[in-house]
Write a structure and sequence with these properties.
- The chain is α/β, with parallel strands linked by helices.
- It is 23% helix and 32% strand.
- β6 (76-80), α2 (92-98) and β7 (102-106) form a beta-alpha-beta unit.
- The model has no long low-confidence stretch (mean pLDDT 91).
Length: 133
């Protein structure tokens, strides 16, 4: 799905999502990331898990470690759960709470729109989104 172009005040904005990935509008041109995406310090990068099932068990802390490392630098994590709303993985709230990081969870399409809006406000947050196929 294409999103309406906006000014991100120097931040990369999501210009499209779907078909298993995300497209970002950057000052240097568009960039497509296949699979899941993690946005830290205004830099989008590929992220390992592809489904909520990939976040179950022992791998949970490993997948969210880069976000926890931002303790004190971000207000919250915006987490896109894929095409549909899903509860957060068991233990995620506790991991983030221990780092003083809030959690906003929603389906990935809504998370893309929310990210673009918040990016223009200059908020300090991280993003983790599972893809929409």
């Amino acid at each position: 799905m294409q999103l309406v172009p906006a000014t991100g005040k120097g931040r990369p904005l999501i210009t499209a999502y779907g078909a298993g990935g995300f497209r970002f509008g950057l000052e240097t041109g568009d960039k497509r990331i296949e699979g899941s995406v993690l946005i830290l310090a205004d830099t989008p990068s590929a992220w390992g898990p592809l489904t909520m099932a990939d976040l179950a068990g022992a791998s949970l802390a490993e997948h969210f470690a880069p976000i926890v490392a931002l303790k004190g630098q971000i207000e919250f994590l915006l987490f896109g759960t894929g095409p549909d709303m899903a509860p957060p993985p068991v233990g995620l709230r506790d991991i983030l709470r221990g780092a003083g990081i809030g959690l906003e969870i929603m389906p990935t399409p809504a998370a893309c729109r929310t990210y673009n809006h918040l990016a223009t406000e200059g908020r300090h947050f991280a993003v983790a989104m599972l893809p929409v196929t």
